[in-house]
Amino acid sequence: AAVSTQSTGKFMQATGxxxxxxxxxxxxxxxxxxxxxxxxxxxxxxxxxxxxxxWRSVDTEKxxxxxxxxxxxxxxxxxAYVLLAEECASTVPEADKYFRQALKIADNNIRRFVAVPSHxxxxxxxxxxxxxxxxxxxxxxxxxxRKMGKLKECIKITRELIKEFPLxxxxxxxxxxxxxxxxxxxxxxxxxxLTRYDDLNLPKSAVICYSAALLKIRPVCEKxxxxxxxxxxxxxxxxxxVEALQRAVEFNxxxxxxxxxxxxxxxxxxxxxxxxxxxxxxYSFYHISHWKEVPGSIKFLECFWKDTFKLIPFPLEKGKxxxxxxxxxxxxxxxxxxxxxxxxxxxxxxxxxxxxxxxGLCLFTLxxxxxxxxxxxxxxxxxxxxxxxxxxxxAMIAEHLQALLPQQVWNLLTRA
Length: 416
Known about the structure:
By secondary structure, the chain is mainly alpha-helical. The chain has helices at 2-15, 22-36, 46-56, 60-73, 78-87, 92-112, 121-147, 151-164, 173-183, 187-197, 206-221, 226-232, 236-251, 255-259, 277-292, 297-304, 308-311, 329-336, 353-374, 376-404, 407-415. It contains 21 helices and no strands.
């Protein structure tokens, strides 16, 4: 959280542009109100009312002041510590301290809930809020540990979180675990995690598809040579790696350009669209280092990723391994990504050459007709000059032929 806030602030100071759009920040505000505010009116105390105002406010300074007032009113206000960690902390250890405080308070509230009667609606509303804070704060603590280089502790907390709250898939905690395992180079553990989540019945993501492709590419890419492959063809393992890569590219075709650094990687938005450019930016931002850690993987990607498009000639109508590509992805990505970013578009709307040529020829003919109608004398003179210009080479050729050929032969040719 602190890293995100710091990065955003540094980016704004350096460029004068905000990496987050109003649409993205509005979605974040809605998520925060849903997660950290009781869903029954009047369920909380004065500190909850202050935090409800804080989550709705768009002014960062006002949000922090309201959170501090909530802590002054009630030192056990966990959501206030979450906001302070997100927006007030200037370093990762400071954010970690705030999140741990919020987690401690939420855990104590959850333990006390056992003695609450089942018909108490307000108490159940607060309990749901405390569970959300508990899951969110523990996930953020794990992310802080990851940023501080404490991978073992990060992985331990993330595993416990997935085990205790398996239904919290909306936070994509398993993807955070996968990223930490890849950073630790624990490829066997990543494969075990993919076996669980890369299932036909479960929703896919760029993290799952491209991580599966990376694990398939890793054993074969170091000894991969293009000239040898052209002569002898692909081995069984190389073919499996190509299939995994083409599966990943079909799911999100925007990612390879960022991994190959053909397009600049920007700070990712807080929300992303599956199979869209926003997801590609977020994946590349966090995972490009994992690809670079595997020697030859980038070269392998560069050689084979474009072949996928030949397998799917009409991606909006029919896919190969996934559903057809959604037509409205580009519009949503433009709402999520900042204006200075060149949004990647797939499939590109390319017109056939014959259609473009015909349209250009018609436009040229129409222009000539209009000019001739309004300026007949000028256009007549222009046509005469053009004919003389184009006829000059033919006249020169005729003169040379007349000089080379005998007079009798030339007379016979001109009579004919």
